[in-house]
């Protein structure tokens, strides 16, 4: 692309510039920058940027009609030039912009534009290296004319464009089939009359040429569709589906498939051929010979994908009679094989694309359920050894009409009962064929795989039906699954339609297990709320109630049906009692309706589980009925004291044990039901029942249970010596001697002596030794395997235990959400903290992380941040204060600050509970200015005499301990929530602002004060005199810290200085806003004395920040920050430049002797001049850079706060003048308050001073020579005089040490 030339408008003084101007061939200098930027944005790769730039360009040209003609020509020229740029991504951008330009300005003739394109990118004159960009420029130029929409209306431009495209088609190496495709696209838009006139020029009267490429064939099909008479006159009658033309059609389609390999779309020529075959009635011949026997036999995946896309595109075009032809042939079998084998992550999968085709077909023919059903059934019949290749959950089923969906469910049920293996389009992969296993090809295996898939598809279909409320169909599927899970037919009866269903293949036990599992999955769908649909039938009954009624109907017809596991007398009585209890629950009052509904869910679920595990469910039903009778006959408990009475019934504890037993089962439905039931009974929870839940989270009891379950004394005794000895990297010598001796006897012989080892053993002894060794190694192998099995067992038990704990956390979440004001919630704090602490230590597996995240979420969001909390703790106030102390102490003992934060937040939550406690002994009323602190030291229900020592100790530890897990945000949260407690803790913080505390702790104390003082709540806790005294006390401490300002060496000291200045600014802001009477003379004098150490020029961010904070404080005290004068900074180095550096700038050649002599003198001169530079020894040596010299030259004018030329007489302001607060200003003269703003209290300076007297930081008294000559001098010294270099290094090191001394 051409270089970007900045546009500058011609100025009147342009003629005075030196030199002639270059010729402006492109007219760039006459255009504005805004206009030129449009063309750069058009070529950017972002589509939004390109479109926006094109719109702005067109709007720019329309808004300026007076210059639109001139700039329109320039825009057209730039866009035409951009068509041939080297970057391939920019060409389509310019083409689109040119099309938009031609569409917006129709007065531009297309012929002239096409002529300009051909002249700019002339194929005859262009060089060979630029041939490819020129070809693409012509192609994109024609496409721009076509996209403008005006080409089909201009016959002259159309003919020229067609001729240009025909010329471009000859350059196949560069453009390939693009010109022919563009030609077909253009001719498809022209009217029939125009096409009839152009056709002889673009289409040869030769069938071989027509069948030579996809573009020519597509042009032929276009002409046959729009001007068939002209085509017949040109070529004659043509039969494309003849025997001699079919192989050529196959080759053309294969070429078309390869051309769209990257685009992954269906070529237009293939779809046109399909439509032509349907119009001519030759679709079966086309499908069989061209598609299945032609393209599929090529063993070419792009051709196979073309066939798949052709199948999807043909579905809306085919009738119900034609669908079996395409859905039962080789193509659909090949598609199924592709779905089975395409499993690798990087392998292309056609299934999502086929789902789109089928979904579009089902959406388009909802009024034709027969065709919908035929297509869905046909895809379901594609099986791999009996297993359908489609997933059990197919989203396109949701697009079926109700009639088609009902027919599909009926077909699935019929297939489950009487599988028709002959109607399936079954196949085996190449790997399955190589196996040659007779058991894999039997009908029993295929029937099992098919039935397993069908029952899962039925359940997934109901999942979609539940959203549309197809109640009859849901009940039909649920009854079907339940009956075939737990019952079998003895004699058919019309009262039970399921008994009339006969099996063609017997139903195996493993199939019934699959059906049972699918049924409970279905039960979860219909018994819990799915999305927004209710989990009830239209008559208001739960879905599980209908299933229980159906089960009772089956039990009552014992002559016709029988359970797979017959009920005993006790189990049948439990079933009958359950039905009686359900009737009693339905007759409950309106107040207990919610609780009764929860118990109904529990009874329904356990009653249905009675058919799966009768023994366990029978016991659970008895316990649940006892709990229901007791719960409905009592009033809800409200206080903790009542819960602790011995008259409290234990039904809640029994029910909690039942819920824990349900949660132990790996069923999501059980989990939902347990959560629902517990939400209704948690109001009756007792401490003992809560302890049952917390015991699950207790690792000590879990460890005790593990020892009972896992430990085995015999296995301990049989533990091999190898493992015992490897504890610590040692080798078990006993087992080694035993192996070396071939057994126990041989081992003893080896241990007794080695003299017998020289004797040779006989054959029998060697055989016996081999047998002993073999038995030893076999026994050792068994022991190792036993230990591995034991380790796997322990790991699985740990996984099950963690999963059970995650499920039990659901009950805790329900408790803190439904009953946040229950006093039992306070007992959850420490158990949850223990879970978080253990999980943070061992959170290696994903399950541990899930447990940690869920526990932390419950603790943080549902407990600590809850809007509601306990207001009545009864007699447990003393225990809560002890718990607060314990939590704060544990927070200070943790090794990680993130873990300490959880303990500290728990303590803050308890403070919130104590503060809002309604049973406190003394509750004081708010006094004047909203102060709630009484004379007895309480605030609300919070006793400050008990709480203050706890947090005072923690704060002292935080401000003195080297590595404390406590952080500043923790105490800031405490101060913001409890400002009265903050008032009591402020003396501790103020004490650590100065003194023997570490700089880091002093900085933290300053930050605490800086954040706490501006709060309004803290201000309301103080009377005016107290507040003024507090501010004065803090100001004295900060002033003491500022006496060492600018002397920081470590990072912590720098942070301490920054925090001190930040606190000082906060204090000054508070003093001025509240107009306090505080003496600021001392702090002003300290700041003025440290001014020379804070000269600007520090490179680090901390130095600049420190300087900014310093001048912010000085501004609050009435001293303005000086401004640097750049002009003087540029002039001073010229005056102070040494003659030695001037000599060095002269060019020429000197002998080596003279150079060596001069360098020695230069090396000694800086050492002599560096001595008087840094007064006090606190200035580092100079780096010799020019920037430092400029600041050094400005030293006399900026060292004391204001420029020297504007400084008044020294008598105007002296350090003895006190700086008073606004209250004292009313009694004194204005000239004596805070000093004059324009004057500086520093001593005056003369106009010029010697350079060695300038006390600038970082600048020494060396001669101001540049850094580059000095480096060259050091290099020459290093190469010729090592001793001199070492002496210079020593002097430099000594000067550095001298500068660092205080």
TrEMBL record:
* GO terms, molecular function: RNA binding; sequence-specific DNA binding; transcription corepressor activity
- Spans of biased composition, class Basic residues? 1142-1160, 1184-1193, 1289-1302
Question: For this UniProt entry, which residues form the secretion signal?
Answer: none
Q: Where is the composition biased (Basic and acidic residues)?
A: 713-725, 1122-1133
The UniProt entry lists the main location of this chain as nucleus
**Transmembrane region positions?**
none
This protein's GO cellular component annotations are: nucleolus
KW Nucleus (keyword) present? yes
Q: Which InterPro entries match?
A: ARM-type_fold, DNA_pol_V/MYBBP1A
List UniProt keywords, sorted A-Z. Nucleus
**Annotated stretches, region: Disordered:** 1-25, 704-725, 1119-1302
Please give the family membership noted in the entry. Belongs to the MYBBP1A family.
Identification of the protein by name: MYB binding protein 1a
In which organism is this protein found?
A: Neovison vison
